Amino acid sequence: MKIAYDSQIFCAQTYGGVSRYFCEIASRLAQAPGLDVSIAAPLYINSYLQNLSPGIVTGFRGPGAGRFTSVYPRLFLRGMSLALGDLMLRTQSPDVIHETYYFPYSLGPRRARRVLTIHDMIHERFPSDFPLGDKTSRYKAVAARRADHVICISESTRRDAIELLGLPPEKTSVIHHGFGLMTGGKGDLVGEGPATDKPFLLYVGNRGGYKNFFRLLEAYASSPQLRAGFNLVCFGGGAFSAEEHERVARLGMTNGHIIQLGGSDQLLSRLYARASAFVYPSLYEGFGIPPLEAMSHDCPVVCGMTSSIPEVVGDAGEYFDPVDVVSMREAIERVVSSESYSKTLIEKGRVRLGSFSWDRCAEETLCVYRKLF
Asked: Does the global pTM surpass 0.85?
């Protein structure tokens, strides 16, 4: 069987969960007997591709790809990569094309069976969080209709895709993401951003819209126990905006309470390992890797009971209603005020991690390919 992955995500992401997902699958399937696996990416900016075994990737990293940060150069590179990738796929004539993102047109030979992975339905559930004119939802619907089979990364995403895109249930299946431990340890944070001697809660990622960060600020600010005993460390997502600074001041807090950091995976790893709790207030996730990252570092997880989050976290987290600030505050307080309860969550997290592996993700994906013939 000849399996090909198109160039879409690899000329759009330097790093990111979607491109990593395809690299993890392709690298494993390339080792299986009887399979010819290729990624048709004639021009790419993705860094993960450079770590794959020789023979998987057809193409090369665009010259000066790291400088493709403005709109027009990236659009030019993307257009060139898609056009050349279409010709490449037609030449290779694969049996299966797994489309790596949402595109309105069919790439490669028409005879190939097509698979699409839907990672979330955030654009459909929270359209106001995206610019006017964003075409992701429209292109996703077109690509999903074109596909012979649609993989969803959680049952929650599958339900939403069936409801919002009108997909026949029999055309869909659920294959959970795998999970790989990050590098790092419990060392000091010296040299990688400001350290804090005070215990802290950890928030990771972007903070806008459905990520529900402002409610976390309110929950933290409304708790004398949390304000007195813990900092709130926010990793990633860029520096605080003027609106965020204003909200922090309005809630009577200072930069001494809330710390924003960015940096390497090694720093993030050490933050997970030192945090008193990882808090995940998001209103919606297609899957949600950060809680698994926290579990892998023996950090108790406190999270919203919504979308795919309970599906991933299972019994290894303390849950709250993400639209209820009091519920959020009380859940965090329950975890940080009880060492024995925190240890219970940590033990359950270690067990929960065993449910997710890239090997199983690749095996189940290959079963989907084979069922198309």
From this structure: yes
